[in-house]
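sanity check this record:

:::
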Amino acid sequence: MPRDPDEYDSDGGSPTRGTPQSIPENMRGYQQVYLIKKPNPNTSDAYSGEREVLFRCGNWCYVGRVTLDFGGAEGPDDDDESDSEGKDMSLKDIPRVIPILQRQQGKLAFYCNHDSVPRDSSFFEPLETMQEAQDFLSGEFISDEFNDSLERFESMYPWMNDDEVKSYFELNANFENDPMENIQCICSKTYARGLIFVTIYFENTFYVTISEGSGDQPLLDVRFPDVSNHGEGVTLMSYIDNDIEAKYQKLTLWQSLAGEMKLSTLLAPRVKKTKNLASDSYVQSYIVMKPNKDEGNETFRTALFRFGSWCYSGRVQLTASLALADLPHVIPALRMQQSRLEFLCDVSAMPSRSPFVRPMEFAQKAAGVMEEEVVASEDVLNNLVERLCSMGLGDSISQWLEGDPSQSFFEFSFASTPKTDKAHKNVELMCTKSYTPNGLVTICIYFGGVYYLSLQEGGGEQPLLDSKFPNVAGKGRGYQIRSYSSGVEGWDSLRKVSIWQTQSAMQEEMEARIDKATDAEAKSGTSFGEAVAVTEARNAKMVDEELSRSYEVDAGAGVAEAKDAGMGEIESKMGMVEVGGSGASTPTAAAGAGVTSPTREIETAAESKTEGMAEAQSPERTVQKSPAKAVDDNEGGEAASPNTREAAGGAEAKNTPGGGQQQEGSRKQSLGAFHHLAPMRKPSGLESKLGDIRKGMGGLGPVGGGGNAAPWDPFGKPVLGKGKLDAKPL
C-alpha cells in the first residue's frame, strides 16, 4: 500500500497530483523493463510465436527476436480454438512469458543506454508513455486526494487493510493517437525507497503492485504477478472530467484472487503441438490466403510455399481479386517474390496453430480419395467410349479421353459443411504437384470451393521446382462420372465427380468439323459439303445427348433425384471472353440463352452453307482460334532448378521426384494416358498480367534481389541467414 505522502514530500506541502515534476528523484530507482512488440503482419510471426523485444537492465538496453509460448496448456483433445489459434497473448500469459524471454537472453544484442534510445526508434514512444504512466501513478500515490479516498474505503472493505490479502491497482488509459498500437505488453520493475513497484501495460491498461523491497534484492528478477483474476474492486479516482489527466480514465484497486505459482512451474517446458504432414511423394505446394480487409490493402496476402520437405511463408503482393483463369499468372508472380518468404518449418513438424495446417491436411486426405475415384472411373469412361464407338460417334469423344491427355481434367464438387468450411477458412487458392514413386504426377488445384485434378506421367527426369500448372478455367464437354448423396469413405462431403474436356480441345474439335465440311465442299461441290456439315452437326448433337443422360449415381440417389438436385446436368460449354486483358479465356453465353452448345455451333455452320451465306459469314468466323497456352517454367527470373539426376543419391534428394523406384504395371500409372500435359508455351497475355502485378508492388520491400534471392538452395533446403534467426530444418 502507498505510504503517508509526508514521507515523500520534502518541503511538507501537498504535491500536485500526477505531475512528473512533483515526483522526487529518489522515487525513480533501478529499473528492469521487458517490452514485447506485436507480431509483424508481413511475416509468419503471428502463429510462430516469434516476437521482437527490448530488455532494459539498469542503464543498458538490449534488443532482439525471441520465441515465446502463448495460450493454455495443450492436451490431446486441444483444437486450438480457445486461444485464437495461438496468435494472441493473454494477460494470464505474462507470468510465464517473461521467464521464457529471459532464458533466451543470448539472442539479444546491446542496443543503447536507457537514456539514449533513438527518438526515431519504434521503442522510444512506448517507453516514454510507460514512464509517464509510472510517474503519474507515483504522483497519485503520494497525493492527499488519493490517500483520503483510500482511507474512506478501508472502513467499508476490510480486505483493503488485510496484509494477507493481495491486491493491485488498475489504471485505464484512453490514448487518442495510440503510441502503444504495436506493443503487446511492457513489464517493469522499479526498486525505490525500499519498495518494489511492478507495472504491467497490456491492452490500454496499466496494472501496478507495490510490495516491500527492503534488504538485498536480486538485480534480475523475472517473477511478475498474475493480474488476470480479480475479486472485489473499488474505484478510487476518476479522471473522465479532468482535462489534465485526459489520457487516463480511472484508477481502481482490485482484490487479487490469483494463486501463487512456483518459478519452476512457470518455466516447465511445454511440448509444442505440431502436425506431421509428410508423405511418400515429393510435393510442391502453393497456398494463397484471402486478403485481410481490415488492413486496408487487399493486394497483400499471406502465402505458403512447400518445396519438398520444407515450408516457407510470408506476405506477397498480388492483384486485389483472383479468378481461376489467373492461375497461370499467379504462380510466376509468387516466384517473383520468393525473397519475401522465410523458412517456417519442416513439413513433418507443422505448427498446429498455423492457418495452413487445416487446408493442407484436408487436401492431403482428399487427394487419396480423388486418386481412387479416378482409378474407379477408368472402366466407366472406357465403356462410354465403346458405346459411342458402336454408334459411330466415338471419334471426337475418344480424342479427349484417350488421345492427347492435356485435353481433359477432373472436377470434384463437395458440400459446404462446418468441417469443410473450417478446413478452407480464408483460403483463396491452393495448388499442389505430387510426384509419386510409381511415376505419376498428380496436379491438384483448389479454388472457389471446388477441387480440380489433372494427371501426367512423371517418368524420367523432372525439375525439382516446376511452376507450370494447367488452366482449368475453360471447359468444353463434360461428363458426370458419379454423384453421391452422402459422400464416400474418407470424404463424406463429396457430391459429384466429373471429367471435362478443355475449352481449347473443344475449339480444335469444332474447327476440325468445320474444316471437314469445307474440304468436302471444295472437293465435291456445295451439295456434298452441306451434307457433311449436316452430318457433323447431327453427330455432335447425338454425342451431347448421350453424355447428358449417361452418368452413374450412388445407391442413395436415383437418376431423377440426381437431376432434381442439379447433379445430372452435363453441359458442353463454348464461347470465349477476354478476362482483364490477360488473354485468359472463360466460358460465356448470350444473355438468356443458357450455355452455348458446340452442337448448335455446328448446326449454325451447316445452315450457313445451306443458305449460301457469303464468306464473311462462313462457319469459320463462328470460332475464335485461341489455343490455350500456359506459363513458361522460368518466368519470374529464378534460375532453373536442377533435375533429379543431379540430386540423386545426395542428402538433398529427400522426397524428390526421382527418389522412388518406378513400379511397372501400376494401375494408376495407366491413367497417365488420359491426362498428359503438352509442352507449355508462354501465353501472349502473361507479360501484361505480370506487369499489372508488378505495378502494384513496392510496399513490401525489394523483389528478387538478383541471383538466387530465395531463402532456399536449389534442393529446397533453407539457406542460413535467409529465414528466422534460430530457424533450422527439423
User: Anything to note?
Assistant: Residues 357-390 form the longest helix (34 residues).
